[in-house]
Amino acid sequence: MARLFLGLDSSTQSLSAMVIDYDRRKVVYEKSLNFDRVLPQYQTQNGVLPNPDPSSASAELRRAGPLVKHSPPLMWADALDLLFAEMKKDGVALGDILAISGSGQQHGSVYFNHRATGALAGLNPAKSLVENLADIFSRKTSPIWMDSSTAAECAEIRQALGGIKATAEATGSDAFERFTGPQIRKFYKTDPDAYAQTAGIAVVSSFMASLLAGKIAPIDHGDGAGMNLMDIRKKTWHPDALAATAPDLMQKLPPLAESWRIIGAVSPYFIEKFGVNPDAQMLVWSGDNPCSVIGLGLIKAGQVAISLGTSDTFFGSMKKCHTDAHGEGHVFGSPAGYYMTLICFKNGSLAREKIREQYDIKDWNEFGKQLASTPPGNRGGILLPWFDAEIVPRVNQPGIHRFDLDEKDAAANCRAVVEAQMMAMRLHSRWMKVAPDRIFATGGASQDSPILQIMADVMNCRVLRIEVSKSAALGAALRAAHGWLVQAGERPEWVKVVAGFTDPIPNSEIRPDKKAAKLYDKLVEKYAACEREALKQIH
Ligand code: XUL
């Protein structure tokens, strides 16, 4: 019989399912439900509650400013019901699924009252999940990763822990607005009564796992590190971070667990209602980035992937834990063991598109031709493409800065935006101390070879393209397979688990041009000086 595993991905905008046939190395089913489209009654826009929204369920949101971004946790539960109903309708062999795991958007938090444990244990299949769970929340809406309203709380936590470097050393990251700890602190400060009524706090991944397992689920080391609450080295809750965040927090947090741990059986709700295999094992869920690390095949220390998407993301897999003293990058636990790093550059596609529009370049093919028509190093011209406030380096005032670059020269500006993005990645990933022998490139812009050539030259490293549009859901399914095999006593090696699912596209390798690479060794220093100069002007 086929060994089938289910991976779910609860992202900002949608809930997706992927079923893999492990022995055939094949994805056999994929489905994605877009929250705005299938659940319009929650009135979200791209999965997020519009703000301020007079009809919003929560007084907290009605008072909120534009930096607040929340979503309704009941919508996520509703989507889970719908997705299982779809899978049943589509004839997915739910009765043969051996294990289930999942991925959740990172940092978002869910607040339970004292009724949650009982309600989860007694889910009634004659009712919907929404009917079962309507009164288990002490906070109606959940702050998500897009929320940046906690600058004051970040400053307080950072100060209590001894500054940026010490906070990163302790928890894997500096205090970030979107991270769960600062969000919990803000809730405690602004609504102490509701905080006191809170019996348990989950992150999105552990919330979804709790629904499927019918009990409060642990948080894994990937998502625990996205909270500013976990000791990144000991992988236990950090007492000082908890004390800096809110009172009695320890009693409200679930245990931490390795992401290959089995939580238990699937709740009878899913077995009776949708025909899920009664012997299926529920694994701990993780965050979308830790799951993507598996879905991209980054299972060996030192491996690196770059995703060129709306924002550009630099992922690395790391054996020994180094944290970033400047507090720009993050260290999370990796589901493959060891650690993973993540650096998020906000001005990714956004900046490339802005330049394309500004110079009236009709498509990406034409953009690629402009790149090819200019020499590597751009004759020393540098552009800092901070069209939006940037995360790395921290730039809170958007602006475009040019050095030795003629604004009228379309081709030079196209090259400059891509070179700047690649040099920023090289510069700001130095703290990770990884020297990869190849980089996996993914995301929309990774289809353009001239962009990847610049990546290879700036990084002085081979670049291989990898086509994984649903890396988080795939990573979750592969984690389900791995956890099940561990439980079965098979001692699976990650290399074997991911083989055939995450292989690079054949013949996609791009090699660095040695002359160009030498030139960038120098130019990256000029780029760093330009960043320093611009930051001095801004701050
Ligand atoms: C990572 C982050 C985002 C979310 C998106 O730190 O905030 O990538 O995980 O879902």
Write a concise synopsis of the structure shown.
This protein has 539 residues and is an alpha/beta fold.
Total helical elements: 22
| Structural class estimated from helices and strands | alpha/beta
Helix content: 25-40%
From the N-terminal CA to the C-terminal CA, the straight-line distance is: 63 Å
Percentage of β-strand residues: 15-25%
Number of DSSP E strands: 23
Which stretches of 5+ consecutive residues score pLDDT under 50?
Answer: none
- Mind telling me the C-alpha Rg? 23 Å
Mind summarizing the main beta sheet? 7 strands, mixed
Ligands bound here? D-xylulose
Mean pLDDT metric: 94
What sort of overall outline do the alpha carbons produce when their principal axes are compared?
globular
Task: Characterise this structure.
The protein has 539 residues and is of the alpha/beta class. The chain is built from 22 helices and 23 strands. Strands 1, 2, 3, 5, 13, 14 and 15 form a 7-stranded mixed beta sheet that branches. It has a 6-stranded mixed beta sheet with strand order 18-19-17-16-22-23, with helices on both faces. Strand 16 and strand 17 (312-318) form a beta hairpin. Helix 6 (151-161) runs antiparallel to helix 12 (239-245). The longest helix has 25 residues, at 514-538. It is globular and about 70 Å long. The relative contact order is 0.12. The model has no long low-confidence stretch (mean pLDDT 94). It binds D-xylulose (XUL). The site of D-xylulose (XUL) has 12 residues, from helix 15 and strand 19.
